[in-house]
Specification:
It contains ten helices and six strands. The longest helix has 15 residues. The chain starts with 17 loop residues before the first strand and ends with a helix. α7 crosses α9 and α7 packs across α10. It has 225 residues and is of the alpha/beta class. It is rod-shaped, with a radius of gyration of 27 Å.
């Protein structure tokens, strides 16, 4: 990548130089990052660190604009290091650049204060997009992991709760959706009204709803009946 390469984003960086700290324990990855980012005159590498503790110390000393942080660091992992940096320097932006893609690690990193999450092996342009988004105060998620975050933020699908219902409760629920009253359900299924009442209460408890109308709505939305 040629040194005269123009920063391919919309930030007005002609008069602005972002100071970047790299926290990465792999020497080859560290060198590759330094060379790739140094190709842009709007970015300057102010320091590098090989583990989480050194990364925190470097951030406190150098106070960069952006920290490019790995997760799998020795001594102190990148998630804990990010939390410490954010507690001391809340305005410093942290861009996670890692091969870790489990939902637990992603959510933990974002919860620690990371402003962006990039996957190693992505293009330099994607990393630059993450840096720009973080600098602007936005959150950037690599497309490879965005779906995991979205799924995590969604409320639990009620369909999973239907597995807890017995066959008889499903029969009762179907009739509830059709609008039958408890006595009508009792007649239809040859059950006593008290038994139907017990089934209805069990259905509402298992589906975590407050009344039979909500139970019917949940069942319809989930396509169960």
């Amino acid at each position: 990548m040629a040194p005269e390469t123009v920063f391919p984003l919309k930030l007005p960086l002609e008069t602005l130089v972002l100071r970047v700290l790299i926290v990465e324990d792999d020497p080859m990855m560290q060198l590759g990052l330094e060379q790739s980012l140094a190709a842009y005159p709007q970015l300057t590498i102010v320091g590098q660190a090989e583990d989480g503790y050194l990364g925190v110390a470097a951030a406190l000393e150098l106070q960069p604009d952006v920290v490019v942080m790995d997760i799998g660091l020795p001594r102190l992992d990148g998630i804990a290091a990010t939390q410490k940096i954010k507690e001391a320097l809340p305005n410093v932006r942290v861009v996670m650049l890692t091969s870790h893609t489990t939902e637990t690690e992603i959510i933990a990193a974002l919860s620690s204060g990371a402003d962006a999450y990039c996957i190693k092996g992505a293009s330099v342009d994607r990393l630059l997009t993450a840096i720009e988004a973080a600098y602007e105060g936005a959150t950037y998620l690599d497309p490879q992991i965005a779906r995991k975050v979205i799924d995590h933020l969604k409320p639990p699908t009620p369909a999973g709760n239907f597995a807890q219902l017995s066959q008889r409760e499903l029969e009762v629920l179907k009739l509830m959706v059709e609008g039958l009253t408890n006595p009508e359900i009792a007649t239809h299924l040859y059950l006593s009204p008290n038994t139907v009442k017990t089934h209805v209460r069990g259905i509402m408890n298992k589906l975590a709803v407050d009344d039979r109308v909500q139970a019917a709505v949940v069942a319809l939305r989930a396509g169960i009946v």
